[in-house]
Amino acid sequence: MKTAYPYIRYSSDKQSHGDSVRRQQSLITSWLQSNPDYLLSQHTYKDEGLSAFTGKHATGELGQLMQDIGNGSIAAGDMVLIESLDRLSREDISTATDRLKAILIHHVDVVTLSDGKHYTHESLNNPMDLIMSILTAQRAHQESEEKSRRMRQVWANKRAEAESQGKVISKSCPRWLTVKDDRTGFDIVPEHAQTIRQVFSLRIKGESLSSIAKTLNEEGRLTFTGRVGKWNQSTVQQLVSNKALIGYKVQSRKSVVNHPDIPDYYPVVVDLQTFQAVQQLKSDQFGKKQTSNIPALVNLFKSIIRCKKCGNIFILNSVTVNRDGYYVCSMRRQGRCDAKPIKRKDTDDMLVKGLFHNLDRLLLSKPEENPVSALEAQKQDLTERLTKLVSALEIAPDITEITSRMSVIQGELQSIEAQIKGHRQRVQSHVSDTVKCLNLLNKADRVEFQLIMKRHVKAIMVDTLKRTADIYFHSGLRLFNYPLDRLVDGEHFLEVLPVIDADEFDFNTYRVIG
Predict the structure, then answer these.
(1) In terms of DSSP bridges, do strands 457-463 and 117-119 run parallel, antiparallel, or are they unpaired?
(2) Residues 268 and 245 placed together within one structural domain of the fold
(3) Which GO BP terms, alphabetically (predicted)?
(4) Which of 51, 340, 432, 509 has the most CB atoms within 10 Å of its CB?
(5) Beta-bridge partner residues of 468
C-alpha cells in the first residue's frame, strides 16, 4: 500500500498557540478518509517556528523530508501532503519551483490540501503551471495573513472590553438569546429556555439523544431556527454540550489564536450541577464490547442505500455477531419518517445474488459515455491561457486582476482534471470490478465490495412497503421496481437488457424473476 507523508509548518509564535496545526491536521484526516488506498506515515514532518520567508525550514524537518525522498526512504508512488505550496517555501519563485521539482522528479506525488490539487511527475512537463501555482499560493497567503492580523487586533480589543467592562463583543450569539438594544447584555428567549430545560431533564432521566429528538418533534417544539419537526440526534448532542448554557463565551473553532473562555458572558440557562451531570453521562459509557472486527457491521451499501419515502440514508439496526439486523431510515428514530424497517439479509441477498454478482457484465451491457477527449481539449485550452497570463505577470504593473483570473482558470482546470480522472477510473474498473470472487463473510472483502458499489452505483432507493428498489448507476442506467422479496434471474436479465437498448429498465414491465 502506498504511504502518505504529511508536512506541517507554521512560522509565528501566535500561530504556535493557535489552530494552524489543528487546521492542517484536519485537512490531512479529511484527505485520508477520501483516499483509503493510502496509509498514513507514522512520522509527520513538522517544522515549528521556522520561517519559509528566510528558508530556515529547509534545514529542519523539510530538509529531512527532501533527504528521505532523495535516498529512497520515501518511495516512488508515495504522497507528500501539504496545506499549500507556500508551506514548502515563500522564498523566490525559482527556489520554490526547484524544491517542488526535486520532489516530483523522484516520482513522489504532492497534494495541496487547501485546493485538492495533485502534482505528479507528469506535472514537470508544465513548468509554467508549477510557477503559476506557487505564485498564486504565495500571494493568497500574504493577503490572508494581513487580513488575519487586522482581525486579530480588532477582536483582541473587543475581548478586553468584554472581560473588563462586560460589553457585548458582537451581535452574534446563541439562538436562545437576543442582544439587548443598548448592547449591554442578552435576554433569554423564554420558549427556547423551556425547551432546553426539558432536554436536560429528559437526559438526566436516561433518555437517549434520538428519543429526546423524537419527543421534541412530536410535541411540535421549535428549533432555535424556528422550524418544527427538525430536531435530530446531532442537534440535541450539540445543545447538551454547549458551554454557553452555563454562561461561557467560547472561542470560535476558526480562531487563529487560542484565548481562554470568558465566564459569565452569557446569562445562565442551565445550572452548573445539571450541566456537569449530563456531561458525565458521556464519560460513564464504558465496558462496551468492541465490535469493530465484526464483518456484519460493514454495511455493503453504505451511503448509497436510501429511503425512497424521504430520501435519507438507511442505517443498520439490531446487528450482532449472529444477527444481520434491519435497514432503518435514519429519520425514523427522530419521528420524521414512518417508513418501516426492512430485513437486511433478505435485501442484501436479493441485490447481491440477483444483480451485483453480474456487475462486470452489467457494466459492459451499458457502457458509460466517455467524454475524456473533449475534456482534454478544454484542459489544453485552459493551460494555454494560463501560460499567457504567467507571461503577462512579468510586465504588468498591477497583478491583482491577473492573479484573480488565474485563480478562476485554475479552479476550472481542477474541476476538469477531476472529471477526467473519474471517467478513466470507472472505465478502467469496468473490467476488473467483479464481486463473485469476494467472500462477504470476511470483513476485508465486505469493505472491498462497499468500495466497488460506491464507484458504480449512485443510489439504491428502497420502498420498504412494496419491497422494491430503484437503482441508479453512474453510467446513466436506471433500474426501477427491482424486487427485494424474490430472486431475480440475473442471467436472463442481462440477455434482455441489450435487446431493449434503453437507459431505463422497469421490472414491473419485464418479468425476469427466477
Answers:
(1) unpaired
(2) yes
(3) DNA integration
(4) 51
(5) 463, 483
DSSP string, 439-508: -TTSHHHHHHHHHHHHHHEEEEEEETTTTEEEEEETTS-EEEEEESSS-B-HHHHHHHHHHH--SEEETT
Measured from the Cβ of residue 362, the count of other Cβ atoms closer than 10 Å reads 21
With cell 499549500, the residue in question is 84
Q: What is the pLDDT of residues 354-396, one digit of tens each?
A: 888 877 767 655 544 556 667 888 888 888 887 787 777 656 6
Give the model confidence (pLDDT) of 93-136 as tens digits. Answer: 666 677 888 999 999 999 999 888 899 998 888 777 777 777 76
- Active centre residues (catalytic): 11
The mean pLDDT of 214-227, rounded to a whole number, is: 93
The 3-state DSSP class for residue 172 equals: coil
Distance between CA 435 and CA 356 in Å, rounded?
7
Torsion of CA 142, 144, 149, 150, to 10 degrees: 120
pLDDT digits (tens, 9 = 90+) for 386-443: 778 777 765 666 667 777 787 788 778 888 887 777 665 554 444 444 677 788 998 8
181 and 215 belong to one structural domain: yes
**At 394, which amino acid appears?**
E
The answer to whether the beta carbons of residues 7 and 65 sit under 8 Å apart is yes
Q: Is the pTM of this model over 0.85?
A: no
107 with 229, same domain: the answer is no
Which helix (H) or strand (E) segment holds residue 154: the answer is helix 127-165
d(CA 230, CA 158): 35
**Does the residue 468 lie in any domain?**
yes
- Strands 117-119 and 109-112 turn out to be antiparallel
Last residue of a domain, one of 263, 283, 303: 283
Percentage of the chain lying above the pLDDT 70 cut: 74
* Predicted pLDDT of residue 157: 66
The label of the residue with cell 469476494 reads: 438
In a domain, 231, yes or no: yes
Domain of residue 377, residue span: 372-428
Residues 458, 391 within the same domain: no
CATH number of the domain at 236, please: 3.90.1750.20
Do 301 and 424 have their domain in common?
no
In a domain, 512, yes or no: no
Query: Would the pLDDT of 139 be above 80?
Result: no
How large is the angle between the packed helices 372-393 and 400-432, nearest 10 degrees? 160
How far apart are alpha carbons 300 and 361 in whole angstroms?
Answer: 20
Residue 51 has pLDDT above 60, yes or no: no
Does residue 283 or residue 43 have the better pLDDT? Answer: 43
306-347 pLDDT, tens per residue?
A: 999 999 999 999 998 889 999 999 999 888 899 999 999 999
The DSSP call for residue 221 is: P
Non-local (6+) Cβ contacts of 197 within 8 A are 269, 270
d(CA 10, CA 305): 42
DSSP, collapsed to helix, strand or coil, labels residue 55 as coil
Residue after which a domain boundary falls, among 146, 176, 192: 146
Query: Number of structural domains, the chain?
Result: 4
